[in-house]
Amino acid sequence: xxxxxxxxxTGFVGNYVLNALLADGFEVRCxxxxxxxxxxxKRQGVERFVGDLSRPExxxxxxxxxxxxxxxxxxxxxxxxxxxxRINGQxxxxxxxxxxxxxxxxxxxxxxxxxxxxxxxxQLRNEMDPVHPISHYGRSKRTGELAAAAAADRVPVTIMRPxxxxxxxxxxxxYIFRPVKRFGIHPVPGMRHRRKISLIHAEDLATSILLxxxxxxxxxxxxxxxxxxxxxxxxxxxDATPLYSDLGDMIGTAVGRASVVKLPVPDTLxxxxxxxxxxxxxxxxxxxxxxxxxxREGAAGSWTCSTEKIKQELHFKTSVSLEDRLQAxxxxxxxxxxx
Length: 339
Hints:
Elements (H helix, E strand, L loop, with lengths): L2 E5 L4 H12 L3 E6 L6 H5 L3 E4 L17 E4 L9 H20 L6 E5 L24 H15 L6 E5 L2 E3 L4 H13 L1 E5 L9 E3 H14 L17 E3 L8 H12 L5 E5 L1 H18 L7 H8 L8 H7 L7 H14 L4
Parallel strand pairs: 1-2, 1-4, 2-3, 4-5, 5-6, 6-10, 7-9, 8-11
């Protein structure tokens, strides 16, 4: 039986990836920071190792005797840019360095983000486009990519760049669904600019990770000095790229709303609200879902990506339509009484 390490297993996406690894026959161990807070993993029969991405000395034992590492762990929100870099950037460097010290390093799958590449403009972004991250989060994910690429001469590395990930159990995405369900309102930043968005359901992302683990190309170490990856990097998304305003109608259909009011939010207002949210988060001492960093991303333009490469090389395709995935997500929220 092959052995896999999963970081970020206790998170929303981590739950889907863990189930996919177990279903694929992997013996899974998980890197956790606290045994008491990871009891659900114990009940699933996985091995837990206590460690911290910011402390490289805690990572040496957890990477031994592995065939695969899926590095999903990281920060989606943080109080400062240094916090993002410490975990998303330096944490990735520490983990891939621990793998590089092994006589037989495992395949290393880094789950990055479209934010590491930047906005798409009028054309779908592809893997050969030069990157231009515009947020602290995006820059920290790019730092992680470069750290993994720098070790690619010793460790077989593949980088996955999902866009907006959604599905049952997602607390961040829930705040897009909730106003549509409760009030029939869909706030749209910069509505006049008709911005588009790529999405991927967490289950489809988990499927793509297994495909990349078994048959994906690996990063060329020389690409660590370039602004793009010539191989070993994949955008993974649903083929549909709806206008963000139309996403509100799609969610409205899923929640049973006959009509949805699109509420334009000027970019300047979004940044102002994001700044206020950031100040409040710092006063509380914990980051919130919305921040100035997220407002910058929302005001930057379209976030869309091409799936041609992953379809051609790995024969990836989403299992059901985007509309059905949105419906399943709403059904999960209803079943678990989140609304």
